[in-house]
Design a protein that fits this description.
Low-confidence stretches: none
Order of helices and strands: HHHHHH
Number of strands: 0
Helix content: 55-70%
Number of helices: 6
Shape: elongated
Distance between the termini: 45 Å
Radius of gyration: 21 Å
Largest sheet: none
Mean pLDDT: 91
Amino acid sequence: MVTLDLPADVYERVRRAAKGMNQPLEKALVDIVRAATPSLERVPAEYRAELEALEDLSDDELRRVSRSVVALGQQRRVERLLDKNQRDELTDRERQTLAGLRSEGDRVMLRRSYAALLLKYRGQRVSNPEGV
């Protein structure tokens, strides 16, 4: 339990929201805070610890993570394997390699997305790292 002194204007907004939600003030406030803060509830368990670690990073470190990309060589390898896959020419080993490379790409995108979300939550401006 936490005791919190809210400025009068914030208290009044929460009071009105609770009334509109037909909930006690405390429950409405918990729901509002829950909705306003980043959550990893829906993220697969294997990624949670890595993403939770991002929460301890500075804004500058989060910006670097939000701009990270898969290495160009890895991107090219994925493209070659996808081309082979379309032609039904992948070996079992190449299929495993492709799955691993795709998983790594997904991990990079998840980290980038969560870093951007954390920056936005912290009130930082978040722009597209590729300038698009």
